[in-house]
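Figure S7 source data.
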Amino acid sequence: MVEAKKIWMDGHLVDWAEANVHVMTHALHYGLGVFEGVRCYATKGGGGAIFRLEEHTERLFASAHIVMLDIPFTKEEINMAVVETLKANSLSEGYIRPIAFLGAGSMGLLPKDNPVNVAIAAWEWGAYLGDDGIKNGIRVRVSSYLRHHVNSTMTKAKITGSYVNSIMAKREAIESGYDEAIMLDTEGYVSEGSGENIFMVKDGVIKTTALTSVLKGITRDSVMTILKDKGEVVREERFTRDELYTADEAFFTGTAAEITPIREVDGRVIGTGVPGPVTKGVQETYFKAVKGEDSRYEHWLHRL
Ligand code: PPE
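Tokens for the predicted PPE complex:
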């Protein structure tokens, strides 16, 4: 990864190399942390714009609320700290990672006085699933690992520990020659990618997984708005893997993955094997929106 200069930790900027935690950090042992992934894009005028910062901070606090982690800062303080971190690293474009976690103190499953530590890092991060993936689409496989049951790990919370499941699925996909994993929910319906929401198009009908077992993606929400503004209707409902096999188009959405077309699922070519018109239309509008080139979506930008 491209290291940046400074990381914001518990209210102060520290050097990248100094942003360390103790090995007895509770979250390291048990996975009780919540985090966000946010992107900032360089706009035409030159300045950077953070995409939907307020919504990401809202979700960070919602995740913390779900797992009962008391973040010792206000939302406004976190928003300001994100801006400060980008500025300290002279970044007008990059990926931002706010994280809040249970710090060092007591061990065991009933931690009493452990502090909640908060950090914000930012660095340059290009296309998550590759430049070729964004352009031509990726090959995915249905994972042998299921997405968490809603009453096992809370899927609306972006919890650090939940990502062991994602890492297993991602590794399995790569090791078997694919680019990314699609995970089914515990009832066998399509849920999401290891770090992305999913959309499919069939005979003009656009669907995305209902929110039951998936993260409430901010890119998913942006794409639904963009499609609505194009006069399309998006159905939020569950669908099966064989519906996906016979889809005309499919694509992933996520802050890191942005809009990545899916050209193959489990060896079955999707549609014509190249990104279709709905996918390309969404991509075009999304990239214009994040770069401040579409005034309809200016309210999504937090300009630096
Ligand atoms: N589902 C999961 C499981 C997920 O991790 C993400 C984001 C999404 C859906 C899409 O959410 P949103 O970014 O709000 O549209 N995954 C983040 C982590 C990626 C990583 O490798 O780290 C991200 O995209 O930042």
